[in-house]
Structure formats: C-alpha cells, structure tokens
Amino acid sequence: MELKEEWILPDAVYNNPLLKRTLLGLRYYGLLLGHSQSYKKAHCFRGMVFTVSMILFNCTQYVDLWQVWGSVSDMTANAATTLLFTTTIFRIIFFYFHRARFNSIIQVAHTGIERILGDGWNDEKDIVTSNVHYLNRLAVVFWSCALVTANMMCVYSLLLYLMYEGSSITEEQLNLAGSNSNVTTPQQYPTPILRSWYPAADGQDKHFLEIYLIQLYIMYVGQLIVPSWHMFMVTLMIYGRIECSVLNHRLCFLDRYHKPEQEDKPKSNVPDHVDNDERRSLIIDCIKRQANLVAFTREMEQLTRAAVFLDFVVFSVLLCALLFEASMTTSGVQVFIDICYITTMTVILFLYYWHANEIHACADQLSMSAYKSDWYRYDRGTNRMLQIFILYSNRPLKMQAFFISMSLDTFLAILRASYSYFTILKQLTD
Predict the structure, then answer these.
(1) pTM of the model
(2) Mean pLDDT, the chain, as a whole number?
C-alpha cells in the first residue's frame, strides 16, 4: 500500500496545544500519521484491521436484529449498540475517502493557532488558553462517561456469567423471558454485552469465554474510536469559535493594536487623529480572517453534514431503544448502565449542535464588534471599508446537515422525538 504525502501530517501538528490530545486516539487507531512516525504502513494496517473487525461485527448485529424481528424487547436491546456502531463505521469509511481533506483542515487549525500565539497579543493568547482548558475539561467528562458505560457493560456481563455459571434454563423459559420482561426465570441468565455472538440454542453457552473475548476486543476498539472521533470533530469546531472570538476582540479594540501618531499629545475634546493607513491594514487583516473563517466553517460543514444527518435520523431511535430497555429491566445495575449510555449518546449530540450554534452566535456579533470600534476617528475611505465588512458580517454563518440546521432547536427536537417514540412504544407493549 502506497502512502500519499497528503495523508501524512507534520510532526508540529501533534504538539499544537489545542490539537495534541485529541489527535492521540486517532493516531493510535491508525487513521492519522506523522512524518517522523516509523512503520507507517503497519499503523495503517492496524487501523484497517480495527475497521474491518467493526464492520464484520456490525453485520452480525444486523443478522441478530433480523432474527429477533417482532420481539420488541430483543430488538431494543440490540438496536442501541448496532446503530452506534453503524454511525461510527460510516464516519471512519468517510474519513478514508476524504483523508486528504481532513488532514488539510487539521493543518488549517494548526496554522491558525500558531498564528494567534505567534502574534504575541496577550488578550488573544488568553482566548486560546481558556478554550484549551475548556476542551480539556470537556474531554475528561466525555471520556469518563463513555469509558464508564462501556466497561460497566463488559464487567457486568462477566459477573453475571460467573454468578450463574452452570445454571440450566430451558429454551421455553428463555423465550418467555425474552418476550415479556416482567417474567423472570428461576435463575437469571447473564445478559451478553452484544447478543449477536451468542447462540440461542439453550440456556447455557459452552463457549462463553471465547465469545466474551471477541466481544471485549470489539468493545475496546469502540471505546477507542468513538470518543476519539467525536472529540476530534468538536476540537475543530472549537477552533472555529476561537478564530471568531479573536476576530471579535480585534474589531472591538482596534486602537490597542497600534499606537496613535502623537501619543504624548495633551488630551482635548477633539478626538486624536489616527493613522488611517495602519487602520485600513488592520481592517483588511480582519476581512481576510473572516473569509478564512467562513471557508473553514463551510469545509467543516461539508465534512460533517452526512454523518450529522445520519445521526439526526438514527439517534431518535437509538435513544428510544435505550429508554425502553431501561424501563423494562428489573436490574438496578442494568438501569445504571442504560442511564450512562443515554447520557453518552445525548452528550455526543449536544457537542455537535452546541458548538455549531456557538460559531453561529459568535459570528453574529462581528458586525456589533466592528461598530464598537473607534470608527468615528477614521476617514471616509476607511469607514467605507468598515461598512463593507459590517454588511458582509450580517450574513448568517450557520452549519447545516443538508436541510437540517445544526442548532440547539434541532437538538431539542431530536430529544422530543425520542421521548415521543418511547411513549408510543411503551403503550404498544403495555
């Protein structure tokens, strides 16, 4: 396999204060490569093995879903993880087809952060630092939620097997328990992590350990790629917010970025004159930054809209399935796992829609920030340039997933739809 140059990122990208932590997971998975990295083909091969494993496993989940079709409880127990793996696999395959574009947008974010830090303005450095701290806190919370959910599923399944190992349950009891969650068998059979690998021939699985290890491998691959990918995309969105915040700050305080012509001149009621040539160069720089921000946001929209649209379609069903499973189970531990799972899925949705909404809200402030500058001290030509900037800034900078607007209203609509599906399903089963 020949590796193209545009597939490999410069080593400096991995030391960027905003990107370095979020890129580690994707690099370990095998999606991202560095120039000084040894055995690049081996890393790519590892990523391909992980991806093929997830695809094969997801196919067996759909086979299992087809086999239990008609049993609401079995279908909902299967659907959540099946749909999550489907959306994750779609994102990975999409990355393989657009690897050069993803690498390009990563380098744009790296160059932008380096430029802000290199300019040496303390206020702009503080904006970057505060967003890096915010990202680190967000990553800790999201990773903790995802890891607790997945590992609880792994440990709980193993504990149940050890507790009820050797118990015999007839097929009739299993079918009865599977069709009606209110009916419990004399000895609860352990619920598998991902049920598609478990034959339903009898109440015992004589190959539990082998199948459990396969599931454990898939589960840990999922734990690696799911949080890594979503935090990676959120990091790029946060970079867009950083650029927009820095631009707002520059426009509000243009007078801080250069000194007046006569700094020692005594103050008077007549405003001091400014160097309009310098001020025009600052405004031109802001115009260029705004154009780069728009281009970055549009590229982000192109790279995320298909996956976000797929999330919009399937996450309502996914959350509905988790709610239904939590409402039907009699195990307190399983309810806790379902609550953690629901929280993780909700956070994934919230991260995308919240930060897309943040970019839109921050971009809406650009015209007001330009108005807050000391424009009354400019000459007519400089003010005309500023007016053009304000008119262009009034165009909304919204991210969309085809016809779906990435905003908090859409996020709330998905949650409402999930609860509506859950109440309908609950009424049908009751």
Answers:
(1) 0.86
(2) 83
